[in-house]
Structures are given as C-alpha cells and as structure tokens.
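Table S2 (text version). Query chain:
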Amino acid sequence: HGAFEVGKGYVLRDGSDIAIIATGTMTAEALKAYDLLKEEGIEAKIIHMPTIKPLDEELVREVAEETGRIITCEEHSIIGGLGDAVAMAIAKKPVPMIRIGVNDVFGESGKARELMEKYGLTAENIVARAKELIEK
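Corresponding structure-token output:
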C-alpha cells in the first residue's frame, strides 16, 4: 500500500455485500471475518482505517454507496470513536450500520484475548453481526 498517509483508509479486501471498517488490532479480526464470511458466500469489503481524526470520509461514503451496509470495528468505546466518526460521515446518505466496540462501561484488566471475547471483539462476532445486518 506504499507509505502511510494520515487521514487515508486502505482497502485490504474487496467485496460488495458489506463493508467492514476496522482500526487497530480489530483489523486482524476483520480479516479473519472476511475469510469466514467468504466460506458462507458473503463478500465483505475490508477497510483498514489507521486514523480516525482525520477520517477518510471520501472512502467511507464510497464504500457505503457500494455495499449499502457498514460494520465498524474498534477496541475502543463505541462512543466518540471510529463508529461515531463513520456515522457522521454518512449522515447525509445513511446506510444500515452496526458498531462493534466496547459499550459504555468501565474498562477492566485481564488477558487481552479474554477481554476481546468478553466484549465481542472477535472475528466470530463480526461474522454474526454481518449476517444479522445482511438479513435485515
């Protein structure tokens, strides 16, 4: 993908059924979800969004129009993070959207994998939520 550019998102996998926009360690989970969804005949477009501010709003609007559905994935509070930024970017032409992240709760300590599973920050949860959104 060349040199890192602040404010630019990167398409890692192409698909037309749903867009999964991820940041941080959730990008790896999104890529795993891509493989699982593909096994079920669902083509997901995977976007890695390394920066949230500034956000690549042009890319977000483009994938919203192309796929008609978006899931955002972050290991962060869903309030004030990637999900909110994406929702604001598509506000004029909204599409069905699900935000995967930490709900409005106090954080806790523990092993990373256990916490990711507790908060649903897994490829399996991304797949379940994607299927839910597609079936609506």
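Notes on Table S2: Residues 10-135 form a domain with the Rossmann fold fold (CATH 3.40.50.920). The mean pLDDT is 94.
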